[in-house]
Amino acid sequence: MTVIDTISQFLPLLLSGAWATLYVTSLATVLALGLGLVLELLNGSSLAPVRWMVRTYVEIMRGTPVLIVLFMLYYGGPSIGLVVDPVPAGILGLGIYGAAYFAEIFRAGFQSIPRGQIEAGEMLGLSRTSIVLRIKIPQMLRLIIPALFGQIVMMFKESALLSIITVSELTKVATQIVNETSSIIEPYIAVTVIYWVIIEAVARCGLFLERRFSHGA
Amino acid sequence: MEFLHIAWAYKEMLLVGAATTAVISGASILLGMPLGLAFAFGLVSHNRPIRLFCAVYRSFWRGTPLLVQILLVFYLLPSIGLDLSPVTAAVLALILNTSAFQAEIFRGGLSAVPKGQVEAAQMLGIAPITIRRRIVIPQLLRLVTPAITNEFISILKNSSIISVISVTELLRTGQQIVSATYRPLEVYGLIAIIYIVMNLVIAQLGRRAEARLARGARA
Amino acid sequence: MALNGQPRVELAASDREVVIEVEELTKTFGPVPVLNGIDLKIRRSEVVCIIGPSGSGKSTLLRCLAFLDPYTGGRVSIEGQLLGYKQQGERRLMQGHRELAKVRRNVGMVFQHFNLWPHMTALENVALALRVTRKLKADQAEREAREALSKVGLGDKAGNYPSQLSGGQQQRVAIARALAMKPHVILFDEPTSALDPELVGEVLGVMRQLAVEGMTMAIVTHEMGFAAQMADTVVFMDRGVILEQGSPDEIFKNPRNDRLKQFLDTWRTRSF
């Protein structure tokens, strides 16, 4: 059986897998972005213990394989009476893991804005909120677009690991097809191509936005 | 504490698992390095087909999930008559994967070596191959050390994925201990701590290497 | 170090052999013409200073003499050999790096930003080409490299890395690096423009010494004092052409071209 045969025969299954991949990754990304921003704002707190906790969280996540985070949620949850279905466990796992990376990206973005600009704003009597909203965030967004999209691409790739905790996304679908047919390699090639297309599209989106926002750089 | 009991009871298994993870990741990074360097030079080559080929290679290995890459290598090679052990297949997949990431790192480093230094060498009649070997590559190593350190950490973490083709590295060791103890939280927490410690060590080694290579830097 | 070339005082300039000959040289970057028909002869032991406003094409001219920027029309010959191209029937093909290296074997170059290799000591910077291009043995290369460093007054800095040297010292190492190859001509591309004012003197001092010893030199510079004092010929360029060339006296005391007069006026005003 050729790759084309595999695709045409199992098109609905592949499409449902692709949809699941898009769905869980999007939700996880939204969760990670929000949590990441909260972490970064807490990191700017004047309370040292708060900052210390944020740093610890970020370092723990960045030092641990995402697969372990998923296993702890999915297999470890029940042992403390917390039964999580595969899909929410996967979204939650990818989300809290990605949040640490997004927090680092936001931090680098804020740090890259020259101190002098903030001082100039302060000397002109701008409030702290307007400095954040009108000076920091617009510039930061432009600066962090490449890193932001790099991390989103990363989350798409990590979402393949949800197949290990039985979420029926693309990779899982490939395994299912392997089990149903005699072919071993074609289903994997098919889903590889689908991943490649999705991820290339996301990366192109990032490049497009980067160019859109690059004026005044 | 249950946590410490488990660590003590399974200390040998854990050590072997951690060592396996360290050796597999280290080997992948080291073996991927010459390949990554070659692809980096390919990416800046004057030859269009070579450039295109390297760009597609980089895009593929950076643009698809490592899990799928591992499965592809593991199942594809036997189907073309190459029968590899899971460990070999895993290392091969990790090498191919990291070589694409390292290619991009080295390419960035290449563009950071000032063009004037190469011109000065050309004016002294130094052959292109010698310019690369004596002038560009030694500086490249210094420029890319932080990024390579990060790549090492990322490969160490990602090597946990090869547990799916039943390579008994650190994470799979954890799974085995879980099935014996039914203590997933404690065991995976323990495994996570071992990964974190190994990553801290790599980060520290990276900083040392950077400091050593920095001697005589900054023109 | 023995420098080739005869004592310059004894021969009339026009009798000496031509080291670099430039004929109808043109250079375009895409559609933009940068050099527009340059003719120039540089003779043995001659010191030619090229001056002109920024963007006049003087640095590009010098880089074309080294073929670091390929010229698009006309020809540059180094001691009679065509630089950068080879004639194949009607067509002109670019030389491979070996042929190119052969033609410019006797051309040294000193850059505005020194372009030392930061991971090598001063000695290693000077010795590398002696090893790999001149194929000297390690001890012989080291001896000659030390000699070259002593000549620029840095014999005691051989073991220093570029980052441990001042800008002026770095540029002197760069001169030693070029000098050690025993070139017949050295091209200087704004050698003092990247230096703090107090460091300019030491570099000009080394160049002055080379000139006195008979080295053939082409120098793109903003140092009018140096040009007036040391040049045999001063070339004034603007907008990609040579507008006037002559002795320092002719150029600085009796400029004929209006743009040259204007350029010198601006320079005088600025230096007060």
UniProtKB/TrEMBL annotation, chain A:
**What function does the entry list?**
Part of the binding-protein-dependent transport system for glutamine; probably responsible for the translocation of the substrate across the membrane.
Q: Which residue numbers delimit the ABC transmembrane type-1 domain?
A: 18-206
CDD domains xref list: TM_PBP2
Q: Which organism is it from?
A: Aminobacter niigataensis
- Transmembrane region positions? 20-42, 54-75, 87-106, 143-168, 188-209
Name of this protein: Polar amino acid transport system permease protein
Task: Tell me the superkingdom of the source.
Answer: Bacteria
The Swiss-Prot or TrEMBL record describes its family as follows: Belongs to the binding-protein-dependent transport system permease family. HisMQ subfamily.
- Where does the protein end up? Cell inner membrane; Cell membrane
UniProt keyword list: Amino-acid transport, Cell membrane, Membrane, Transmembrane, Transmembrane helix, Transport
Supply the InterPro entries for this chain. Answer: AA_ABC_transptr_permease_3TM (IPR010065), ArtM/GltK/GlnP/TcyL/YhdX-like (IPR043429), MetI-like (IPR000515), MetI-like_sf (IPR035906)
TrEMBL record, chain B:
How does this protein sit in the membrane?
Multi-pass membrane protein
Q: Which InterPro entries match?
A: AA_ABC_transptr_permease_3TM (IPR010065), ArtM/GltK/GlnP/TcyL/YhdX-like (IPR043429), MetI-like (IPR000515), MetI-like_sf (IPR035906)
Subcellular locations according to the entry: Cell inner membrane; Cell membrane
Residue stretches making up the ABC transmembrane type-1 domain: 18-206
A Pfam family this chain is assigned to:
BPD_transp_1
Listed A to Z, the keywords are: Amino-acid transport, Cell membrane, Membrane, Transmembrane, Transmembrane helix, Transport
Per the record, the domain of life is Bacteria
Q: What is its main location?
A: membrane
Q: Where are the transmembrane segments?
A: 20-45, 66-96, 187-205
* NCBIfam families, A to Z: HEQRo_perm_3TM (TIGR01726)
What is the similarity comment for this entry?
Answer: Belongs to the binding-protein-dependent transport system permease family. HisMQ subfamily.
The identity of this protein, by name, is: Polar amino acid transport system permease protein
Q: Which organism is it from?
A: Aminobacter niigataensis
